[in-house]
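pinging the channel bc i need a second pair of eyes. not urgent but kinda urgent?? the chain im working w is below, pasted from the shared doc
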Amino acid sequence: MSTTIRTVHGTPREVFDVLGNAWSYSQWVVGASRVRDVSPDWPAAGATMHHSVGAWPVLIDDTTSIVRWEPPTLLELTVRAWPSGEGLVRITCREVADGTEVTMEEDATKGPALLIPRLLRDPVLHRRNIEALRRLANLVERAARFRPE
């Protein structure tokens, strides 16, 4: 499983405020171009977000579902982007002296992406998730700047 870690200048609760807003995912998930619909029970376990991956004219419409939602420490998602397959994403938060250590773990679980050896798959996921966590940090930190004291 590819693992990427970043310190975010905000509390675990502030990170989960962003993670709990499915409509924000296209702003921080690399490759997600838009969120098309969100089930009303989001972010409960079993809730589904309908999204598109890619760029016009090659867009793949698929879904992401919550496996576990335990704020402010754990979020697990089943992410889908067929025909490439499905994966599991686990995001954990731990309070540290200068904010929150956010750990993102990801790997393929079904489909053709599993044919790519982990030795090649992990570095690609890691590079992508460095950027995803940078974007997530920007959303959390920007929201904190505008939050009334």
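so The chain is about 25% helix and 45% strand. and The chain has a mean pLDDT of 94. — does that match what u expected or am i reading it wrong
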